[in-house]
UniProtKB/TrEMBL annotation, chain A:
Keywords: Disulfide bond, Mitochondrion, Oxidoreductase, Peroxisome, Protein transport, Redox-active center, Translocation, Transport. It is found in: Mitochondrion intermembrane space; Peroxisome matrix. One of its GO terms (molecular function) is protein-disulfide reductase activity. Coiled coil: none annotated. It comes from Cynara cardunculus var. scolymus (Globe artichoke). This is Mitochondrial intermembrane space import and assembly protein 40 homolog. Its main location: mitochondrion. GO terms for cellular component: mitochondrial intermembrane space; peroxisomal matrix.
TrEMBL record, chain B:
GO terms for molecular function: manganese ion binding; phosphatase activity. This is Metallophosphoesterase domain-containing protein. Coiled coil: none annotated. GO terms for cellular component: cytosol. Signal peptide: none annotated. It holds the Pfam family Metallophos. InterPro entries: Calcineurin-like_PHP, Metallo-depent_PP-like, MPP_Shelphs. PANTHER family: METALLO-DEPENDENT PHOSPHATASE-LIKE PROTEIN-RELATED, SHEWANELLA-LIKE PROTEIN PHOSPHATASE 2. Transmembrane segments: none annotated. Residues 10-129 form the Calcineurin-like phosphoesterase domain. Gene3D superfamilies: 3.60.21.10.
Amino acid sequence: MESLLAEATAFGNEDANASLEAKAQKALECPCIQNLRSGPCGSQFSAAFLCFLKSTAEEKGSDCVQPFVALQSCIQTNPNAFPKEVLENDEAETQEKPSEDYKIIPPRWAVEPTTSPKTKL
Amino acid sequence: MSPVVLIRGVAAVGDLHGDLLKSKQALRLAGLIDSQDRWSGGSSTLVQVGDVLDRGGQELKILYFLEKLKRQAVKVGGNVITMNGNHEIMNIDRNFFCVHPSGLDEFQNWAGWFSTGNNMKQLCDGLQKPKDLYDGIPSTFPGIKQQYMNGFRARIAALRPQGPIATRFLSKNLTVLVVGESVFVHGGILPEHVDYGLERINEDVRDWITGSRETVSSDLVRTRNSLLWLRKFSNETAEDCDCSLLEHALSTIPGARRMIMGHTIQRGGINGACNNRAIRIDVGMSQGCINGLPEVLEISEDSGLRILTSNPSDHQNRHDLLIPEQHGPREVEVQA
């Protein structure tokens, strides 16, 4: 997200004398985030994005919990908030063939009980 | 508002094991955080000796919390130093034997939002396509109950070398630390570790976690006598502490007078063995351990050792170390 913010902010920063408010508004117009501003959660995205850019809190954005939680809730209730083809995990094609010895050591409670009645460890 | 801070010094806290509430209680008891959970330790340095992971369901919350505290501390001249315990290495190694079920939930939830964030980035023109979080991780593991599969996959993705959580948090951990006369290590140090080089040990482990190094020696972090698993100096019965070996190890580190360790639960609370050359600070405070009373070790500038404890009853065998809590543990007012 840092580089995106940098790009959008740079877009809004052309006029160094503009107010934080104006800069944030300008940043919102950056074509780079137009996809995120559309769809059912677009307004929530814009609100969170604007809040962060305008934040003057010591820890920038720490006063934006509400709009970010609103964005989260929106995404939760709208699984298709953003264009589906992009949101789909294309795991299948990117995944390297896992090697045979790719094992984990599980905790006891996660192990499927064996069908053999003899094993009582 | 007059800021109240600890005497400039070092505070050390033991194994936290996924229990955020107990972690905060310990730090508050030591005056390191205020009622709003903000750093109030001024220029003190907090050392956490490892084992944040496993046995509880707030592992990520503790990692983020300590990171946030560090930023606050550094601003006022303090510091928070986090270290590797054997449980950090186990998780990086996909050894999930001590994971708590709620620890799968927390990581799965994290992974869901991390992936959503990645997906949103893909909608931004001009941004590099982020690598798939689960790249190379099998979708299923034989013999594991189906309902836990995604939890384990999330843990692997987060904690494997180069994983986002490993990189952001665990790669910042030290494996061995010397502050003044004190040597901090999760399990213990042997002369052969000193021979290998303390700086080199920290580098090896860090480089393995960030992925710039293929592997890290098991003699350093995985075997019984490694820095993270050793119990020779932390056995609960003080008589079982190998004092001559400890002296030998300490003598190989210039200026070192004591070793401060976690790893082995001390039911009686923080204590010293071998004339306080071995200080054992794992009190098993996590609910996933023995739900022990939080305690913090403080080392003041003149090297005095104190135990900050919430335990009202005294401990007979550690009078020389103990300072019980007295309405805000020995806080000192300073001018801002």
